Amino acid sequence: MKRHATANWQGSGKEGKGTLTTQSTAINTTQYSYHSRFEEGPGTNPEELIAAAHEGCFSMKLSFVLGAAGFTPENIDTKCEITLDSGAITLSHLTVTAKVPTITPEKFQEAVTEAKANCPVSKLLNCTITAEAQLA
Q1: What is the helix, strand, coil percentage profile of the chain, to 5?
Q2: 55 and 33 assigned to the same domain
Q3: Does the first or last residue of the chain, that is N or C, have fewer Cβ atoms within 10 Å of its Cβ?
Q4: Mean pLDDT in the chain?
């Protein structure tokens, strides 16, 4: 399986602007710029998209890990915070709250640790990955 996205950038790094489009067009000519990346300007940025990819991938992997252990989650809510420091992504922090009937907190933490280590986006990232988890 292969997926793709495209970027178009026009102008200099600080004054220029660009658009991002994904294969599915879920993101379709969405603007990004220096201001949306390093300030609070309108549009998206690569770090926000990496956060979305990581939280989505982790949540699905956690569901698979829980299922393999005999548990069916009713709900998994995950937030991912990406830290960009001195031109490098240095941290991806996952915060997850899940409702998983009959699971013990220890088993849940084991599943979170396994999902964090083994979701494909975690394997891709070259940074520290941390997670906080609680049952709802």
Answers
A1: 35, 35, 30
A2: no
A3: N
A4: 97
Structure tokens at 35: 């201001």
What DSSP line would sit under 60-91, residue for residue?
Answer: HHHHHHHHHTT---SEEEEEEEEEEETTEEEE
Instruction: Specify the pLDDT at position 103.
Output: 98
> Do 85 and 21 belong together in one domain?
no
* Structural domain that includes position 19: 5-38
Grouping H, G, I as helix, E, B as strand and the rest as coil, residue 104 is coil
Instruction: Quote the CA–CA distance of 69 and 81 in Å, as a whole number.
Output: 28
- DSSP H helix total and E strand total for the chain: 4, 6
CATH number for 92 = 3.30.300.20
Q: Is 54 found in the same domain as 114?
A: yes
